[in-house]
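Incident review: delayed structure delivery

Summary: a single-chain prediction request sat in the queue longer than the usual turnaround. Root cause was a stuck worker, restarted by the on-call engineer. No data loss occurred. The affected request and its eventual output are reproduced below so the record is complete for anyone auditing the incident later.

Affected input:
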Amino acid sequence: MNHFVIVDVTLRDGIADPEGSTIERALPALGFAGVTNVHAGKSFRLDVDAPNEAAALEKATALAERLLSNPVIENATARIATRG
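Output delivered after worker restart:
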């Protein structure tokens, strides 16, 4: 069975996020006052063939930890999603 999975990869707490900081500094000039604590990350969308949701999440989490992220500086979370 195919499961639609989204994997989000973000920097761990305490790791500098220059991309997020640059975006945050630019926001007031673009008319977005009051937006703070901006963090940049990556998002991956996958179709995972697995017998159930738990197995799909386990496979996607293993993939995220081995290929999609650097576990030394990044956190990866997988979740089942619906298309749309």
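Verification: The helical segments are 18-26, 53-68.
Action items: add queue-age alerting; document worker restart procedure.
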